[in-house]
User: Fold these one by one.
Assistant:
Number 1:
Amino acid sequence: MTRWLDDYEPGLVERFGAFPVEREAIFAFARLYDPQDFHLDDAAAAANPLFGRLAASGWQSAGIAMRLLVEHRRARGDLTPVLAGAGVDELRWLKPVYAGDTLSLEWEVLEVTPSRSKPDRGTMRSRSTLHNQHGERVMTFVATELIRRRVV
Amino acid sequence: MTRWLDDYEPGLVERFGAFPVEREAIFAFARLYDPQDFHLDDAAAAANPLFGRLAASGWQSAGIAMRLLVEHRRARGDLTPVLAGAGVDELRWLKPVYAGDTLSLEWEVLEVTPSRSKPDRGTMRSRSTLHNQHGERVMTFVATELIRRRVV
């Protein structure tokens, strides 16, 4: 069932997902998008006082949050008609994400704003918080998406 | 030469990079981290009024900016001793990134702040702006990194 902008309300909270972070996926992402040595090499990661062992790029964690959100919408049978992402604020990397971690997402609607000029769309602001298998918050951000409205 | 936190000053601007965005790389990223249909399918992208044709995930664009920055530091021979990324604000996707685009980065230091409690490190805030081959700004964000200080 299509879930239009009109079907979301501030305060809605959903928790979902279980994404295993594999060592090879950390390397594959880092080689292409964040080739700093502590994402590519065990010894360099061990020498980093904030990591201590191989840790994923923070941008990979952001991608994992996005994937969990897209899969969740699909699994619900929602065809949330997202037009595009507009932006992200308050992205914080709170703890390292390690190989072998399993990540889940807590997602909360903050604000729903119909466009004034275009009656067929509007924006939704939401907070995504990624947790590891110990229940620790590892990353959080606030995203703004452009979503279609139900046109009656 | 190592470029410590102390070697950066607000107002420094550097422009660099030429990253070709390949169609297959758009698909590969989207399959793993942003499997929305307009990043995976030409017809769905064409039907999206904001894209019109296959466009990269915004998170892939962020990763490309990160890669350009890491490569630039390495190419300069800088071993900027980044400890970790702390966070990102004001991330905005301004225009679609299309297959065949070539992206370059404009990078500006905004703020350098030694830690009060830990004399060996501090934070640097910088603005990254990704441009396409037409000189259009396609993405911008402000990042905060934790960087080591020169310990004399």
Number 2:
Amino acid sequence: MVQVAVIGAAGYAGVEAVRWTLAHPRFELACITSAADAGRSLSTLYPGLAGATDLAFVAPNADIIAEQASVAFLAVPHTAAMELVPELLSRGVTVLDMSADFRLTDPDVYEHWYGVPHTAPDLLGEAVYGLPEVDRGRLPGARLVAVPGCYPTATTLAALPALESGVATGTRVVVDAKSGVSGAGRSLSATTHYVAVTESIKAYQVGTHRHTPEMEQTLSGIAGRELSVMFVPHLVPMSRGLLSTVYLELADPMTTAEAVELYRMRYADEPFVHVHEAGVMPSTGEVRGTNRAHIGVAVDGRTGTLVATCAIDNLGKGSAGQAMQCANAVFGFAETEGLERSGAVV
Amino acid sequence: MVQVAVIGAAGYAGVEAVRWTLAHPRFELACITSAADAGRSLSTLYPGLAGATDLAFVAPNADIIAEQASVAFLAVPHTAAMELVPELLSRGVTVLDMSADFRLTDPDVYEHWYGVPHTAPDLLGEAVYGLPEVDRGRLPGARLVAVPGCYPTATTLAALPALESGVATGTRVVVDAKSGVSGAGRSLSATTHYVAVTESIKAYQVGTHRHTPEMEQTLSGIAGRELSVMFVPHLVPMSRGLLSTVYLELADPMTTAEAVELYRMRYADEPFVHVHEAGVMPSTGEVRGTNRAHIGVAVDGRTGTLVATCAIDNLGKGSAGQAMQCANAVFGFAETEGLERSGAVV
Amino acid sequence: MVQVAVIGAAGYAGVEAVRWTLAHPRFELACITSAADAGRSLSTLYPGLAGATDLAFVAPNADIIAEQASVAFLAVPHTAAMELVPELLSRGVTVLDMSADFRLTDPDVYEHWYGVPHTAPDLLGEAVYGLPEVDRGRLPGARLVAVPGCYPTATTLAALPALESGVATGTRVVVDAKSGVSGAGRSLSATTHYVAVTESIKAYQVGTHRHTPEMEQTLSGIAGRELSVMFVPHLVPMSRGLLSTVYLELADPMTTAEAVELYRMRYADEPFVHVHEAGVMPSTGEVRGTNRAHIGVAVDGRTGTLVATCAIDNLGKGSAGQAMQCANAVFGFAETEGLERSGAVV
Amino acid sequence: MVQVAVIGAAGYAGVEAVRWTLAHPRFELACITSAADAGRSLSTLYPGLAGATDLAFVAPNADIIAEQASVAFLAVPHTAAMELVPELLSRGVTVLDMSADFRLTDPDVYEHWYGVPHTAPDLLGEAVYGLPEVDRGRLPGARLVAVPGCYPTATTLAALPALESGVATGTRVVVDAKSGVSGAGRSLSATTHYVAVTESIKAYQVGTHRHTPEMEQTLSGIAGRELSVMFVPHLVPMSRGLLSTVYLELADPMTTAEAVELYRMRYADEPFVHVHEAGVMPSTGEVRGTNRAHIGVAVDGRTGTLVATCAIDNLGKGSAGQAMQCANAVFGFAETEGLERSGAVV
């Protein structure tokens, strides 16, 4: 059993990493950290885990983590990750980083969007971007995996076959995405109060969301040309779930059936990606609690547009599930290990 | 007091027209019809209206309606409206039609999208499209008002200042819209079951929704050139509310501040339209239960895009509220008469 | 027009009092206070009120309030109210207090449940308990009205006819109540985060909720004997709404039809109370946004129990709506003035 | 691997049994039936199960079921079960019946509450009531298990330690329970439409719900005396989850701490039951998607009442999860087999 530490385990992505670790046949939960909750038991914060583990939170400390675990799932805010990662790597701990700190390859782009200089730029070259469906080749044996953001994951999976194959042309991609509230984290704010969220939808951070450069980097890499992304995220009254609706200009006319076939061929061997038949679009509810990505594709001949929507659970394939999938690949396990089981289907 | 009939009063738009009529100082509810519920009291179906009226549903019949009312709000499905409207007009009843039957000026376009020939094409020229913010000139004294669809209303208000002023260029407009469940009506289906809707979002009728040609007709008229609309509606877990996110290509660079100013100038005299300051986007919750439209605008300089989002209540400004606003204009009342009061703000 | 101040207008009950005041034909909003938000406009916090008023929040100050208004709706926490009320009364301002500070007639009971001594016990005798359906006799001309709590309002209306008539016997009343989240106020806490609330229900403060002695005081007064209340509140995933399910032991067998008749007779002249026919129970949704109370009654012959459920909007009849109803009575207006209009019915 | 058939697999409890079976290490899904959906694939109805199985629905037929499976989970309506069960038993198929048909030991009580005579009364003696926490003794090797109803499960677990130990006295038990919408099943009705459910709560079937006699039978058996149950179920805006709040009269004073200790002792060896510490009450969210029951206990000394609330997932411990737990016991597996994993904890 590989010993696991979850850093920042009190947050939503952190506790989700805990949940997946507890269910995994080859990983064993050894350490959970939370600066704010040190000393408290996990089930005090998450009573649903009563009886699942006796572990209590400890304050994060690289020495202690390295003593107890050989792999760490990092669920800490950006900037905190780039401080901790070098300490963990130097102590031989493999890191699955769910923060944004090692996703962008260019430290200048990082500084532009995050407003602070990158303090570990030397590690950017080593960090492997953890989206197995795009490139799983560098994952085995990796020391540091930058787990993609939730919006980039759904958007990339929605756009990948069309961009990679060249059926999509143009240089501007419109991405209209919708996320549940857990994407904003567990900290309290007026915008996450139940009364502010329920029965209402709104856009936020139009054109300024920090996942934008990550999408541009990944989509440009796939397309082999510079793409700009017009990205508008929305907040939806649901606790989990993320849907990305991507609008791609078609180079040449094609039918929806052809587009579905293109997508199904591309994802034929992917255990966590499902492409719906023509006419069916995925709901976020159907992937809730899982590491799955469900995709629907439609071609609008009138406007020459291919529309792809991808539904994921922002805490599953959009975060902790994907981190676990990557960890499986890093350690040479089947990527599906510990992740097969579906969430509730109703 | 002008006597009012609400036809199809058992449905969501119908009962909303009833509610606004009951609160109106110059309209008086005289007749409510429902083929399926004839004989039942209104409060049997909507206990929230207990004590508000003693009226019971009657079966729809043009003679009876004309006897009791001089104006009718039609909340019946498309095709039913084009059967009933000539009968009502010939009996001298003014009609506010909330169905789609008289919105499209070209009967061929109607037949293409609705799959049946139009049976009253001679009335299409007379019907006034009831979006006062675009053109209220023909409303006073009109016999037949085609109240716009919910998606076209929010989309048009979001795009209007940019298209009319010429700051938006291009021929393809991307419209990504999100609606609450009441937009699908009160009839039962697997897709409106609570368990299917809650905590989930999905796209539907991608590129094929029947509001598409209505948007193209209206936006093209405003822009003075042929526009095609790439329209993707989504179903959101909320009972009411509609948000349209519209992506417009900019002819020349402009700032968000300039865009906000453009929008505020255009809507300065509109009693029901509010444009948020730069950086603030509207939520559907803030217009719930009202006839208001709240708009946010942002310019993304990187991609040369103006993004406008418009939030309405699909049963308010998106249907019965707008019908009442038009009725006020038809009868020479202030457009705000009976519509001033805000819905609940929490 | 009577000039109105709303003290604590940034909170949920406060802004609801603002909304009702803005819609009232005889009250005029003159002053809104909020210590934390002084200087900000109302619509910054509540964009749904954009255009409704130009007022900005001011810091609460008795002199300023008294200068601008002759009546004040107090929506401040307990203990804050008993400090402010004497200052307002001494300046001639009529007070509708929505806090708990003047509801209990016995200062020792107050100290026992609220943990602090009462600092204005001399006013307890003057304060009029503002539940018009129980006793509206002392309201006209009152200087200080203690507006009842949300749980006591729904519970009292559910139990009143059975206790007053003597059909209910016994000394212990079981009250199982369910409230929406706005009842907990606008301040942030882990228990009001959307993710913690949605799709979940739980009990809280079992047997220890501070509304318990208020219910015992009121119900005992109605019954003419000492009653103890076993009260369990629950938190329900809804923003507004409150349902109280009350279990009363029957002295003698009676039918549900007889119980309904008893309730209908008792409330025949009450404009805001509706008793459903036998077999129909009220939902909180049907009274959302209104000042109404809808009641259902059933007799369970097997256990000799009369069950009454009462649905209100906790911010309507449970708080600001009731305060406005009382204010109408205080000033000699019809109790329904400004409160007639139903909220949205869907 | 034991071959499993799920009868009525298109419904909520049915598909939940499918999900648990697919995740089970010793059961293998061999057959799924649905009269209405024969020929369709499972994932057409439940896209969340895309890729999980290739099985399509077949029409229910005892011969075909017996050919393919040695155990059947029955998720069919009452009366349908008592027709099918004898056919399955005679063909050697073990039955876990999630319907109500074999829960009541007295066929007259069945006829009284269900309105039809029991057609297989001879099997009532053989049927084992499947609540392992009360009596697991007869489960190993049983041919027919009557899986308890969702309300009786939560209510019994809430009341069991207090009744069994004799600390609760009296003959009338008040049970105020709250259920999510999936409890009403997948069939369409006006009361399960999203718009009717969201943001609203109401009581239904006050004193007349068919789970009442099942509770009385089980609680009386535990207490060793005749108990009557005053039962009021409520519909809550959530898809899954059930909370039962039970009011028990105390024979003698005790503290909450003592009550918690009593409950913890009783359930010390139960793998699926957790008793919260004093002052903490369970939420249904914390057990969503699991087979767990979380209990909170409080003593109200003022009224001499012990209040216990029990939270379960109505489709988990309240139905298919419990059926699987019983199946494990029947076949001699550990009761936790295939049920260990927690659902999502956020």
